[in-house]
Design goal:
about 350 residues; alpha/beta; abc type-2 transporter like fold; 13 helices; 5 strands; ABC transporter permease; transmembrane; membrane; ABC2_TM
């Protein structure tokens, strides 16, 4: 029988059907991983400051409690300066500042917000400003009616307008904050791809460690050049952003290579899945941490994508915020990943198996 007459082997129908079903499940898992945080996002305990005391503060607190359904946690501050400092340190997303003397001419409440901290919370604060304005109008209307009943003739209606002050708006080059939000997925994907490619193309533990370090440094420079120098998605000190991006890419890449060192090719896939399908969706890059179901929001901040998103936002818009935590987390992930990569247990186990086979 000639070779041309040999019928090539075909895939069994069971395997074809099983592969199709398995792939559909994979697609479903991917969709669920990325859609679930957004679909379940809801504000819970968002810290908002309040300045003032007395009946006015009690009325605002009661109104917030009645309408917010535990979405807002009011934190009392001594004065406006203290509230502003808290917003700039990212300890609060905004504040309601009530006048010390409501009866003084021109005295009006003020609502502070930081759009760059969260556009969603800024929208909530705009709604709070409208409710406070309704309360002020109602109080003025009641006072005018009381005065009209006691004093005949025309009554002057005072004009009190609640002001809204955006303490930290987005930069003109990224007026909606889209550049900062969409940068996270390419950052995570780039870190994973770097780890996978270095795993497949570089042999030797030391060489792989050097490859991760060089890739992280170069990627940090390239990403900062694109995000800050070209599209304007990042603000602040350029070299600080370069270092933050390099640490983020290095932390993700070294995690992939480190897990490969521990578990072989299974570790490569595990690292990619954890970073892309788990860590990235709960990174709070597009919504505040308080919008995510707990404890997932808090867990996300302990992983490289979440720490990177927080650090880049701090560097761009909140220089007064304490960024020690994100810097430390990214550094620890990077160093631990490099340490695991340098050990290369998987290669050692493979070498031991080959030695046993040769001696046998």
């Amino acid at each position: 029988m000639s070779e041309s007459s040999v019928t090539p082997a075909v895939t069994p129908w069971q395997r074809v059907v099983g592969t199709g079903i398995a792939l559909s499940l994979v697609v479903g898992v991917i969709l669920l991983a990325f859609a679930w945080p957004s679909l379940t996002a809801s504000p819970r305990g968002v810290p908002i400051g309040i300045v003032g005391e007395g009946p006015a503060a009690e009325q605002v607190t009661a109104a917030v409690g009645a309408n917010a359904d535990d979405a807002i946690e009011l934190i009392s501050y001594e004065d406006r300066d203290a509230a502003v400092a808290a917003v700039e340190r990212r300890e609060a997303y905004g504040a309601i500042v009530l006048p010390a003397n409501p009866a003084a001419p021109g005295a009006a409440p003020e609502v502070l917000k930081a759009t760059a901290g969260s556009a969603q919370v800024a929208g909530i604060l705009d709604g709070l400003a409208a409710r406070v304005q309704d309360q002020v109008d109602e109080q003025i209307r009641a006072q005018v009616e009381a005065m009209s009943a006691q004093t005949p003739g025309p009554v002057t209606i005072p004009r009190v307008k609640v002001t809204v002050t955006d303490l930290v708006p987005f930069a003109e080059s990224d007026s909606t904050g889209a550049g900062l939000a969409v940068a996270m997925f390419p950052l995570v994907l780039g870190g994973v791809i770097g780890g996978v490619v270095l795993t497949l193309t570089v042999s030797g533990a030391v060489r792989r460690v050097v490859g991760v370090v060089v890739y992280a440094a170069a990627a940090g420079l390239v990403l900062a050049g694109v995000l800050q120098g070209w599209v304007g998605g990042l603000q602040g000190n350029f070299w600080a952003n370069v270092l933050a991006l390099a640490l983020a890419v290095g932390a993700i890449s070294s995690t992939v290579t480190g897990l490969t060192s521990l578990f072989g090719r299974v570790g490569t896939g595990l690292g990619a899945i954890v970073m892309v399908l788990f860590a990235n969706p709960i990174s709070a890059a597009s919504v505040p941490v308080q919008f995510l179901l707990q404890p997932w929001g808090a867990i996300g901040q302990l992983l490289p994508p979440g720490a990177a998103g927080t650090l880049l936002r701090d560097l761009s818009y909140f220089p007064a915020a304490d960024a020690t935590g994100p810097w430390l987390l990214l550094s620890v992930w990077f160093v631990v990943g490099l340490a695991l990569t340098s050990v290369d247990l998987s290669a050692r186990r493979a070498a031991a198996r080959r030695a046993v086979q040769i001696t046998a």
